[in-house]
Amino acid sequence: MSRPILATIHRDALRHNLMVARRHAPESRIMAVIKANGYGHGLLRVAEGLSGADGFAVLSVDEGIALREAGYQQTILLLEGLFDATELAVAAQHRLAVVVHNETQLRLLEDAHGKHMVAVFLKVNSGMNRLGVPAGRFWSFYDRLKACKSVTGMTLLTHFATADEATGIANQFERFDELTREIALPRSMANSAALLRYPETHAEWVRPGIMLYGATPFADRCAAALGLVPAMSLSSEIIAVQQLETGSSVGYGYRFTATRPTRIGVVACGYADGYPRHAPNGTPVAVDGSATHTIGRVSMDMLYVDITDLPDAGVGSRVELWGSQVAVDAVAAAAGTVGYELLCALAPRVRVAHG
């Protein structure tokens, strides 16, 4: 019999969240960001659920090839672009579009002299200072790409650093818009947060990521309030029950000591499954549909939940670690991280099923 921990991927939820994105940006094409193995959900599982998207954004050539071999004909974009000439040949063969964000990548295209041809997304550094061509070099890159025989088409792209925060996007948007507004080419700016909050950024392409998986890009707004539903449920079972007397402790480091007689359920899930080791006492969980919380330090393979007030709970009780009853963002907030990290950290040893 297999270990009871299970991740369930809900394709209907992916389709629903894609429709939410379309409602917010009805005039834009949607580039669904499915890098990092579909944010931990599985690249091809996610692609199936998001097959109505106009394009997919991934990180590696191998991901792009996998999508093409699975039959997807949409635009497929390599978000970090190319790393060598071999990748250019493969990208051209599989019709993968590429981001260009530095001189080395531009020269790869120029040196190909039209032998390998790809569509490009010219990335502008509008202020995030991670990837992108500085504004002062934009026109040089633009002119060279326009003249490059290896380029079949161009889109202009930037990425916002604080679309999810009170700072907003005004400064970056103004820099990018001033550079590009008069150019008759498609543009792409909006990530999930900008798509939901700043319609002026929608342009020809939007690039939703985390919202497609039913998690929120905002610290101050939950996913449900945005009309999103979780695409992953992580569940397990109680495999043992322990009774603590007042003053007794549980787990490594005795991070929880009972202040009353306490009944605890030992759950088959730990940090080797992708649950955050640093989740503190009080991190929300649901046992047989009832809200409760973790206690003690998360172990490699197990964690502990308080079932003192759930007299019917016991060995075999279902535990939702995150999903429709327990938002992944609530677990992440308790653990001092973000939902993105928890979803992406799902371990390969966890069984996965379709919802």
Summarize the structure.
The protein has 355 residues and is of the alpha/beta class.
Note down, in words, how this protein is organized.
The chain is of the alpha/beta class. The protein folds into two domains: 11-217, TIM Barrel (Alpha-Beta Barrel); 232-354, Beta Barrel (Lyase, Ornithine Decarboxylase, Chain A, domain 1). Helices cover 26% and strands 25% of the residues. It has helices at residues 11-24, 35-39, 43-49, 61-69, 85-93, 103-112, 138-147, 170-180, 192-197, 328-334, 339-344, and strands at residues 6-9, 29-33, 55-58, 75-78, 97-100, 118-125, 133-134, 151-157, 187-188, 205-206, 232-244, 249-250, 256-257, 262-267, 284-287, 290-295, 303-306, 318-322, 351-354. The strands form three sheets. Strands 2, 3, 4, 5, 6, 7, 8, 9 and 10 form a nine-stranded parallel β-sheet that branches. A six-stranded antiparallel β-barrel has the order 11-14-17-16-15-18. Helix 1 (11-24) packs across helix 3. The longest helix is centred in the first third of the chain and has 14 residues, at 11-24. The radius of gyration is 23 Å and the shape is elongated. It starts with 5 loop residues before the first strand and ends with a strand. The model has no long low-confidence stretch (mean pLDDT 97).
